[in-house]
Design a protein that fits this description.
single chain, about 150 residues, mainly alpha, two-stranded antiparallel sheet
Length: about 150
């Protein structure tokens, strides 16, 4: 098998089917996030920040920017919007005087939790408990492998 994932110039059908299913999952997941963002009157990035903060409580603006792939300026503007909308507050970082931590308000937590509940129910009704660890491992390995290709052209 070559670096392009082919054998003798043809793609492995099972891998092609996996990639098609993966794309379908990505599209469906994005549509769910967009639906919830729209209901909350937020942009997709703003909404994804709330979801990130619900999982990684008390994160710094830098952590949010890295997680969403945003520049420092875009991150600051995003946090300003969320703070002005009453979704997050900035508080002094307990160990780093130069930084702040972001804390979800009740409004922000409610918006993020609704989406999390839908994903939780879909996973719970679709993935048997005995398969959760292997599916989690697969997703993590795929994400790590993709991350490793960044910047390689």
């Amino acid at each position: 098998m070559s670096d392009a994932g082919t054998t003798n110039g043809s793609f492995d059908p099972a891998t092609v089917e996996l990639l098609i299913a993966w794309q379908k999952l990505e599209v469906s997941s994005r549509q769910v996030r967009e639906e919830f963002a729209d209901r909350a009157g937020l942009s997709l990035n703003d909404f994804q920040t709330l979801v990130f903060l619900s999982a990684k409580q008390d994160s710094t603006p830098k952590a949010v920017g890295l997680a969403l792939g945003l520049t420092t300026g875009a991150t600051t503007a995003l946090i300003d919007r969320l703070e002005n909308g009453g979704y997050v507050t900035r508080e002094p970082h307990p160990t780093d005087r130069r930084s702040t931590r972001l804390v979800l308000t009740d409004t922000g937590l409610t918006a993020a939790t609704r989406t999390g509940a839908r994903y939780f129910e879909v996973v719970r009704s679709t993935v048997p408990p005995e398969d959760l660890a292997s599916v989690t491992s697969l997703f993590s390995r795929l994400a790590d492998a993709l991350d490793a290709t960044l910047g390689s052209g």
